[in-house]
Amino acid sequence: MIAGHVADITVPLDEYPAVGLTATLHDAFQALTNQAHKAGHPYRHVLVLNPNNELVGLIGMRELLHGLFPDYLRSHEHRHFEGASSEVASLTTIWSDTCDAQCPVAAQRPVRDFMGPIRGPIDSQAPITLAAYLMVDHQTSLLPVIDQGRVIGVCRLTDVFQIAYEHIHHGQQ
User: Cβ distance 116 to 47 under 8 Å?
Assistant: First the structure.
């Protein structure tokens, strides 16, 4: 059985990459890279905080890359037509010719245009099994952790997965 409380695996807010609500995609890329170098392991998301330092959104690697796409690749309209995806994918060759000039400009777009909502939150004293359930049910890999109504950190799917693996592995020995 997966035992323990969410507090046992919470990553404190100050140890997780974060940017302000007015930050650009470039700022988010930089925060993700800087924190990875500092921690010695990669992160997949950047927290987005409002001026009161409250968690208001999340932007992941996938959304960051999506933000760099030119408009003709960011459109979702082409996904509604059968057979159109290979035609749209062929447009990436055009982007490859313009990427060096276009990406730095696109990186100035605001994160708020690409960030997603925060799922959760989960209380720090909740069991890890609840975190596992919520992550699967909400299809998210990150939950904000609260203590006395205040966000104190995040619970990551990778940490919940590691706990589950340890219990599986231990049970087979």
Answer: no
